[in-house]
Design goal:
The complex is a heterodimer. Chain A is an alpha+beta fold. Chain A has two domains: about 5-70, VC0802-like; about 70-140, 2-Layer Sandwich (VC0802-like), CATH 3.30.2130. Helices cover about 30% and strands about 35% of the residues of chain A. Chain A is globular. In chain B, α7 (about 165-175) packs across α8 (about 185-195) and α10 packs across α11. In chain B, about 30% of the residues lie in helices and about 25% in strands. Chain B is of the alpha/beta class. Chain B has eleven helices and 19 strands. In chain B, strands 4-3-5-6-7-8-9-13-12-11-10 form an eleven-stranded mixed β-sheet, sandwiched between helices. A four-stranded mixed β-sheet of chain B has the order 18-17-16-19. A two-stranded antiparallel ribbon of chain B has the order 1-2. In chain B, β14 and β15 form a beta hairpin. Classes of the chains: A alpha+beta, B alpha/beta. The interface of A and B includes residues 5, 16, 65 and 99 of A.
Chain lengths: ~140, ~425
C-alpha cells in the first residue's frame, strides 16, 4: 500500500515557499506532513496532502515544477529502537532508503514515518515491513 | 635597445607601403585563385579574375569571407598549400563544436614571429629580456604566437602557460621575468594573488606586459600598471588571420599599429559591405597578403573598430586601429575564450532538454570573468530526489565546460521564470564594463 507524495521544486529566493503554500491554501488543501530538502541553490518541498491529485493540478497550473511520487507510510510504535527495527528489516533485504521523514500521529501513540525507497523496491519494502509494522493508507494519516 | 624590430617596414612612407601592399595583394589573389577552389568559385560568381586585382584600390572588388565559410570548408578546404608543406595547425572554438582550423607553412610561421617580434619590441623588449608567457599553449594561438616572436628576438622565453598562479608568481620573482603576456583578466588575478602572497611589485622585475585576447578598459590598464609596476600594452590578433601580433600598441598607447605590410585592414559598413573612409567606425576586415597556407582575403572579423593614419609619436607609420568597440555578432569573449550562445544552447539540447530556456549572465568579479547559466528545469528533468537534480546540474556543468573550455556556474530555476522574448531571444546579460 503506497501513498502519493507531492514534490515541488523551490528556488532559493525570497517568497517562493510562501507562494507555493498560498496556492495550497487558496485551494483548501490540507498538509498532513512535509519535509524540505535543501541545497545551496534550490530546495525540494515534499508534501503529503489530503488531495494529492488536486494539489498536483493546481500547482502545475501555477507553473510550479511538481511531481507525484509513491512513498511508504509506516506506523512505528513510539519506543526506543522502534525506527531501528524498521530499518533493520529493510537493510536485511538490501533495500536502501533515499530519504525519510517522520511526524507524530494525533490519534495513537505511533510515530508515522514516510519512506522513499527506489521505485523497484517499493513492493518488497511494503512486504517485509508489513510483517512487523503497520503500513498506513492515506486515510490513516490524519 | 632597438626601437623598432623592422624599421623599413614599420616606418615606411605611405607611398612605399601602398606599393608593397599592391604587389603582395595581386600575388596572393593569384595564389588563392589557383589553389583554393572555394574562393575561386566566389570570385567567378562575381566575375572577378586575378587580373582585375592590380593593387590595393581593387581590394573592394573581391568577395568577403565569413566565419561560416571556414566552417563550411572544415577542416582543410581553404588551405592554399599542399598539407605536406604545412608545419603547424592551430584552431579556435567554433559555435557548434566545429572548430576553425588554420595551417601555417614554415614561411607563415616566420611572418608570425616577425609580427610578434614587432609587438614585443614596441613594448620595449629586446634580447636581454625574460619573456614570461602565461598565454595558453596548444591549439590556441596565444602561447606559441608570442613564444615565437620572443625567440626570434633572442629573449629568454619562459613558457609557463596558464594556471597555478602561485607558482607563476614564484617563477616571475625567482627567474626574473621582465616581460609578461597573458589575458588582462589573468594579469589582474596574478596581481591580486601577489598581494595575498605578500609579494610587492618592488620584489619583481616586470617592466612591461602584453595583454590581449579579450577586451579591457583604460581603468584596468592603470590598475595593472600600478599593481604590477609595469607598462601595459594591448595586443590584438585572431586565429583566422595569424594569431597575436596582427596589431600591437606602442609607447603612445593610443591604438594598435597593424602589420599592414602583411594584413591589409578595411573598415566596412557591416550591413551594406561598403568600404568606409578612414576615421569612421565599422566592421574590421583583413586581407592576408603574404601568408601561404591560409591566406584569407577580405575576412570579416565581426569586430567593430576605427582606423587612423594620424601621425604617431613613436615614429611608426603603420596604420592604427583603435580598441575594438564591440562586435557585430553575438560572440562573447570570456576569460579570453570565444563563446557563442548557440554553443550553450546546443549543449542543453544534447542533454535532452528539447526546448531549453536559459539565460547567460557574464560578469566580472574581482577582475575575473564569471559565466553563469540559468536553466529552466523541465518536467522530465525534475525528480523528488535531490541527488538526481544535482546530477542534472553537474552534467550540464561538465558538458558546458568540455564544450567551451571554461567553467560555468549552473543555476537551475523554475519553469517560466526567465524572461520570454519575441523574435530573437536576448539571452545574454553582459554586466562587464569593457568599454571606457
Amino acid at each position: 500500500m503506497l501513498i502519493k507524495q507531492l514534490s515541488v521544486f523551490v528556488e532559493n529566493k525570497k517568497g517562493r515557499l510562501s507562494a507555493i503554500l498560498n496556492i495550497l491554501r487558496d485551494n483548501k488543501i490540507d498538509i498532513r506532513a512535509l519535509s524540505v530538502a535543501d541545497t545551496r541553490d534550490f530546495g525540494i518541498l515534499r508534501l503529503i496532502v489530503d488531495d494529492p491529485e488536486k494539489a498536483y493540478e493546481e500547482l502545475h497550473k501555477a507553473a510550479c515544477l511538481v511531481n507525484l511520487t509513491s512513498v511508504i507510510a509506516v506506523g512505528i510504535t513510539d519506543r526506543p529502537g522502534g525506527l531501528a527495527d524498521a530499518m533493520d528489516c529493510l537493510s536485511a533485504e538490501g533495500i536502501s532508503v533515499e530519504y525519510m521523514y517522520a511526524f507524530i500521529s494525533k490519534t495513537d501513540d505511533c510515530a508515522s514515518v514516510i519512506l522513499r525507497v527506489p521505485d523497484k523496491d517499493n513492493e518488497k519494502a511494503v512486504d517485509v515491513l508489513s510483517k512487523d509494522f503497520k503500513i498506513l493508507s492515506s486515510n490513516e494519516i490524519i | 635597445m632597438k626601437k623598432y624590430w623592422n624599421e623599413s617596414r614599420e616606418c615606411a612612407t605611405l607611398h612605399e607601403m601602398r606599393a608593397l601592399q599592391s604587389f603582395r595583394l595581386s600575388q596572393t589573389v593569384r595564389h588563392v585563385y589557383q589553389n583554393v577552389p572555394y574562393y575561386k568559385a566566389k570570385m567567378d560568381e562575381l566575375g572577378v579574375t586575378p587580373d582585375d586585382i592590380k593593387g590595393v584600390d581593387d581590394l573592394s572588388k573581391l568577395p568577403f569571407m565569413y566565419k561560416q565559410d571556414l566552417r563550411d570548408t572544415y577542416p582543410y578546404g581553404l588551405f592554399a598549400k599542399p598539407l605536406d608543406e604545412v608545419v603547424r595547425i592551430h584552431a579556435s572554438s567554433g559555435t557548434t563544436g566545429k572548430q576553425i582550423v588554420v595551417g601555417y607553412t614554415r614561411k607563415d610561421l616566420e611572418i608570425w614571429d616577425e609580427c610578434a617580434a614587432r609587438a614585443l619590441t614596441a613594448a620595449g623588449g629586446d634580447h636581454t629580456d625574460f619573456m614570461h608567457v602565461s598565454y595558453g599553449y596548444g591549439l590556441f594561438t596565444g602561447g606559441l604566437g608570442v613564444h615565437g616572436g620572443a625567440e626570434k628576438i633572442g629573449m629568454t622565453v619562459i613558457p609557463v602557460s596558464t594556471g597555478n598562479t602561485q607558482r607563476q608568481i614564484n617563477i616571475i620573482k625567482d627567474f626574473g621575468s621582465t616581460l609578461i603576456c597573458c589575458t588582462p583578466s589573468y594579469a589582474m588575478y596574478i596581481a591580486e594573488t601577489m598581494q595575498e602572497m605578500g609579494i610587492k611589485k618592488e620584489d619583481i622585475k616586470l617592466k612591461a606586459g602584453l595583454f590581449g585576447a579579450e577586451p579591457w578598459t583604460q581603468e584596468m590598464r592603470e590598475k595593472l600598471e600600478d599593481m604590477l609596476g609595469l607598462k601595459a600594452y594591448d595586443i590584438y590578433g585572431l586565429t583566422e588571420i595569424i594569431g597575436p601580433g596582427v596589431s600591437f600598441e606602442c609607447e603612445e598607447q593610443t591604438g594598435m599599429h597593424i602589420c599592414e605590410d602583411h594584413f591589409i585592414p578595411e573598415i566596412i559598413d557591416p550591413d551594406t559591405g561598403e568600404v568606409l573612409p578612414e576615421g569612421e567606425q565599422g566592421e574590421l576586415v583583413f586581407s592576408c597578403i603574404t601568408k601561404e597556407a591560409f591566406p584569407l582575403l577580405r575576412y570579416r572579423t565581426r569586430d567593430i573598430a576605427v582606423l587612423s593614419r594620424k601621425q604617431c609619436s613613436c615614429g611608426r607609420t603603420l596604420i592604427k586601429m583603435l580598441k575594438p568597440r564591440g562586435r557585430t555578432d553575438d560572440m562573447l569573449i570570456i576569460r579570453g575564450v570565444n563563446v557563442f550562445p548557440s554553443q550553450i544552447e546546443a549543449v542543453l539540447l544534447s542533454m535532452g532538454n528539447s526546448d531549453p530556456f536559459y539565460q547567460i549572465i557574464v560578469d566580472r568579479v574581482n577582475n575575473t570573468d564569471t559565466l553563469e547559466i540559468k536553466v529552466e528545469l523541465s518536467d522530465n528533468m525534475f525528480s523528488d530526489i535531490i541527488r538526481s537534480v544535482e546530477d542534472i546540474e553537474n552534467n550540464i556543468k561538465s558538458a558546458i565546460e568540455s564544450t567551451l573550455g571554461i567553467s560555468a556556474k549552473i543555476t537551475l530555476v523554475e519553469p517560466k521564470t526567465l524572461t520570454r522574448f519575441e523574435g530573437k531571444a536576448a539571452r545574454v546579460t553582459d554586466k562587464r564594463k569593457l568599454l571606457d
